[in-house]
Design a protein that fits this description.
The longest helix is centred in the middle third of the chain and has 25 residues, at 92-116. The protein is an alpha/beta fold. Strand 9 and strand 10 form a beta hairpin. The chain is built from ten helices and 14 strands. Helix 4 (67-76) packs across helix 5 (92-116). It has helices at residues 6-23, 35-38, 40-55, 67-76, 92-116, 153-160, 183-194, 227-232, 240-252, 268-274, and strands at 27-32, 59-64, 83-84, 87-88, 121-125, 132-136, 145-150, 164-168, 170-172, 178-180, 198-203, 221-223, 257-262, 281-284.
Length: 285
């Protein structure tokens, strides 16, 4: 373990000051899920990072998924999770499980953890105050929703009162039907509606790679205008396609920059926001 002197600590804080000034008072949306949520040690570190940023004045909005927890509870209840093109088939029974897990257990666990780290967090679902209004994405998927409208007032009210909003990705339609929403899609819509300074997508890969099997080929920055070239060359392929599409949508809806980064790296959020090198791939307009 590295031993830091008080002088070393003071130097680190001094170097972080320009970045703290840049983001103080600005909205940063973080999409949280994957291994960073499953691994307990990483979960603790992510919550610490979020509270630290909140304490120095960054307006953090945490949007979370919880797919593995949903599947685990379904199996305990005797149901087999089904997927089509990566989307969870969500019938009436499944959407009840989704609501219980996301708006209940996962959401309140994260709120509690943030509180234990010294933060003030309040949990919301997309059903609260009509936050995420949806329409059915595809009949064959059941109650899987596309976000048609984001009503941001509840988020803004919490931010203005110095709370960290923690949002689970379930929404509803005008008839009261509840929908399961892809976490990346919901987070991108929320970031766009808020005009966030930055949208951070925590994934299970280092970012966008020239060679998907070689993390050293990370592309540090790309622009939306390069989309066609990236698709044609195969750099954007497989599971990265929907993530990149969410990044592009967020940019087009008003987010200044989107970061696709590896949530498995300890303190990756702080590395991204408070250092020159950053973390992952930055997508710009």
């Amino acid at each position: 373990m590295i031993n830091f002197t008080n002088s070393d600590r003071a130097e680190v804080l001094t170097q972080a000051l320009p970045y703290i000034e840049r983001y103080a008072g600005k909205i940063v949306v973080v999409k949280y899920g994957g291994n960073a949520m499953i691994n307990e040690e990483l979960k603790q570190q992510v919550m610490e990072d979020i509270v630290l940023l909140w304490l120095v004045g960054v307006k953090i909005v945490l949007v979370h998924g919880g797919g593995p927890e949903i599947s685990t509870l379904m199996q305990k209840l005797g149901h087999t999770p089904q997927f089509i093109d990566g989307c969870r088939v969500t019938d009436k029974e499944t959407v009840d499980v989704v609501q219980m897990v996301l708006a209940g257990k996962v959401n309140k666990t994260l709120v509690n953890l943030l509180g234990m780290k010294g933060g003030k967090a309040i949990g919301l679902s997309g059903m609260d105050a009509n936050l995420l209004m949806c329409k059915k994405k595809d009949e064959k998927l059941g109650f899987v929703g596309n976000v048609e409208k984001v009503n941001t007032q509840s988020i803004i009210d919490l931010l203005n009162n110095n709370y960290i909003p923690v949002i689970s990705t379930v929404g509803a339609d005008t008839d009261g039907n509840v929908y399961n929403i892809n976490g990346d899609t919901a987070a991108a819509k929320i970031a766009g509606a808020l005009g966030a300074e930055r949208f951070i997508m925590m994934t299970d890969v280092a970012g966008i790679l020239k060679d998907k099997d070689d993390p050293s080929t990370l592309i540090p920055q790309i622009s939306v205008s390069q989309s066609d070239e990236l698709y044609k060359s195969g750099i954007i392929s497989g599971g990265m396609i929907p993530k990149f599409e969410c990044a592009v949508e967020a940019i087009n809806e008003g987010v200044k920059n989107v970061i696709i980064m590896d949530g498995r790296v300890p303190h990756s959020i702080l590395m991204e926001l408070l250092t020159d090198e950053g973390a992952g791939t930055m997508v710009t307009k």
